[in-house]
Amino acid sequence: MKELQDKVKKFCKEHNLESPVEHRVLDTMSELGEVAKEILKMSDYGRKPLKYREELKSELGDLLFSIITIANCFDIDLEEALNMVLEKYKKRLNKGSAGSENVNGSARNFSSFYSISARYTLANALIMFCSSCKGKIY
What we know:
The structure is a single chain. This protein is mainly α and 138 residues long. The protein has a single domain, classed as Helix Hairpins, CATH 1.10.287.1080. Helices cover 70% and strands 0% of the residues.
């Protein structure tokens, strides 16, 4: 993973693609939306069984690139981060669920947690974007 992070860092530097982390987060949200749209297209927006489209590979590559740029902004070793998360999920599964725990220690449903989390993340990203524009949206 470190090699991938170094490769992306070098690419960004060579092509003058360095930008503030706030812009990287917005780009990541956009790329995630493109992945979602590709998956919707794969099922003709839910009308047909899911059928793989090669475009998904490119969209996942875009998303991975964006995530790596965020990690690089903070010098986060993504392999270390992934190992931490796998260990966290392993502990949760040993307790009976991979979902997040609330203050009472009971597991939350993954899908409801992530839909709420995604809304807050998107709202925060939009707030950061608007504040960085200083009232000037082009």
